[in-house]
Specification:
40% of the residues lie in helices and 22% in strands. It is α+β, with helices and mostly antiparallel strands. The protein has a four-stranded antiparallel beta sheet. A four-stranded antiparallel beta sheet has the order 2-7-4-5, with no helix packed on it. The radius of gyration is 15 Å and the shape is globular. It has a single domain, classed as Jelly Rolls (Sandwich), CATH 2.60.120. β4 and β5 form a beta hairpin.
C-alpha cells in the first residue's frame, strides 16, 4: 500500500525545497492541494527524452536518475525535496532528458493547469514560484555549460 505524505508533511517537504522558497504556509498549503501523487517502481521510466512535457515532479520519497543524450550513466541523481521537469511548466515542449526511478519512488506532480489555478488564487506565491523556477533553470544551465567545457 502506498503511503502518501499528509498535507502537513507535504507542506514541510515543499518548504524544504528551494523551488518553494519564500512561499508562505498558506501558499504552500494551496500548492499542496494541487499536487497529484505518483509512484514508480525501481528502474521504471518516469518520462523519456523527447516525450511531451506534462509538468514538474517533486521527489517525496526515494531517488531518481537523470539521463541525457542516450548515455548509460546518469548526469544527475535527485532525492527527496528535489524536483525535475520544471521546463514543462514554462514552455510545454519536449523533455530534454530521461528520468528513471533508481528505487521505488513517490513523487508529487504539478501540472501546467494546476500552476495556472495557483496563479489565480495566490498571485504573490505564483510570482515567487516562477522566480524560483527561473533560478533553478539558470543553475542547471550553468552546470550543463561547465560540463560541456
Amino acid at each position: 500500500m502506498t503511503h502518501w505524505p499528509a498535507t502537513m508533511d507535504r507542506v514541510s517537504l515543499l518548504s524544504s525545497s528551494p523551488l518553494f522558497e519564500m512561499l508562505s504556509n498558506a501558499e504552500l498549503e494551496s500548492v499542496c492541494a494541487l499536487l497529484t501523487p505518483r509512484a514508480f517502481d525501481g528502474g521504471a521510466t518516469i518520462f523519456a527524452e523527447g516525450a511531451l512535457g506534462d509538468g514538474l515532479y517533486l521527489v517525496a520519497e526515494g531517488e531518481v536518475d537523470v539521463f541525457h543524450g542516450g548515455r548509460s550513466n546518469p548526469i544527475a541523481t535527485l532525492s527527496v525535496g528535489e524536483c525535475f521537469g520544471e521546463m514543462a511548466l514554462v514552455d510545454k515542449d519536449y523533455r530534454s532528458a530521461t528520468v528513471k526511478a533508481r528505487e521505488r519512488v513517490e513523487l508529487l506532480h504539478l501540472s501546467p493547469e494546476s500552476l495556472a489555478q495557483f496563479r489565480k488564487t495566490q498571485k504573490d506565491g505564483f510570482s515567487f514560484l516562477v522566480m524560483n523556477i527561473a533560478r533553478l533553470l539558470s543553475v542547471r544551465l550553468r552546470e550543463a555549460n561547465r560540463h560541456q567545457s
